[in-house]
Amino acid sequence: MYKLTGVSKTYSNGKKRVDALQEVDLTIDDGQLVAIQGPTGGGKSTLLQMLGALDRPTAGSVLLGDQDLARASAARLTKLRASEVGIVFQGFNLIPTLTAQENVEAALVPLGIRKAQRRERAAAALASVGLADRAAHRPAELSGGQQQRVAIARALVKSPKVLLADEPTGNLDEETRDEIVALLEGLWRDQGLTLVIVTHDSQVASRAQRRLQLTRGKLREAGPGKNAATRPAPAADEATTWSRPAERTAVEPAAVEPAAVEPATVEAVIAEAAPVEPAAAEADGVALSEPVAAEPAAVEAGQETSDND
Asked: Which pTM does this prediction carry?
């Protein structure tokens, strides 16, 4: 799946130089559940930016399959983020004027999928995270845990090869945290995803197959997690994952009255959204010199990092 060789990332702002990553070597196999821990400013989110094709290393190679993300064109990286990599962030990054259904559909717009199929797949994705009865609700009408479930559904609806989660429970209470971790763990086990979670929380990291520690830009193995002996199901293809929405929980009327849906289409709202650039380096006190442009439609691709490293 991933093979990183000699990956370094250096940011500079005037005379200040920060080595966010230092000669990182890392292999992540297909279907592996990996947790990355480390102190704030240690480079965790910078590493996740590399894995998510949101930024390029100063030196080294980042292979996803046979593609070197460090050298691929911007157009190729945009296509890869839209189809092969799902990203979940601490801040949810939902479009406030869209319903949960429409937020999930937004991830499919760059793929040119027809509206009817988008709706079908988005409904199935929401049902898979237990939110069939909240499809018509906007983010402000949902709890933090429900918003994170919508963000997970949005990341999964395009049937990515890999799911990256940057502090996905950082804004949640302990009970909701445990629910979200159990959800991610179940999706990893059932769908055969490659799942990489960046977290400060040792309870979250302990659920992984493999734990890594990243401190001052240097990566080391931190031992196996509770799922070290668990093997996920074979990766499901798109047809297997989303072709049978009728078997999932039907979308029921919301328990509370959702806000009226404005006539604007998903495409129109996305088209009006300003592009958001990644900000992996902000905790290091410097700005990105050459950010990879994020397409507005790939909502999750442009979210700012959560633990500011």
From this structure: 0.76
